[in-house]
Design brief:
This protein is mostly helical. It folds into 2 domains: about 1-50, no CATH class; about 80-135, no CATH class. The protein is built from 7 helices and no strands. It has helices at about 5-25, 30-35, 60-75, 80-95, 105-110, 115-125, 130-135. It is globular and about 55 Å long.
Length: about 140
Amino acid sequence: MSTPTVRYKYIEEVEDDITAQQVHLQGIPPPEWWDKWDKRSKWFDNKGQALSNEQDIWSWDRRFRQWIQEPRKSEGMETINSEEAAALLDLLKRVLAWKPENRPQAQQILESGWVKEWALPAYNKTKRTPEVERA
C-alpha cells in the first residue's frame, strides 16, 4: 500500500512528464511559467533545447502518423492527405496555445481552413449517406 507522499510524488512526476511533452510540441511556455518549473532541467537546457534522445521526442508529425494515419490504415480507411494534415495540425497548434487568450475563439475555429475545406464537407456528406440515416 502506498503512502500519500509516494502517490503525490508519482503524480508530480507524471505532471512534469506531461509538461515536458507539451514543451516538445508547443515550444517554451510563457516565461512566468517556464521560470517556475523547477524540474525542467531534467528535460531541457536553459534555452529550451531538449536533453533527451531524438527518438524519445514525439513531434506533431510522429503523433499524427501513429494516432491518426496508422489507425485509419489498419481500419481500411483512406489516410488524410498532406494538405489536410497541415491544415489540421495548424489548427491544433493554435487551439493548444499555452495561454487561453492566444487560442482562437469558436468563430475563428469555424472559419479555419481545416473546418471549411475538410470537416464541414465531410460532415455534410454524412448527412446524405443512407447508412447514417438508418443508424
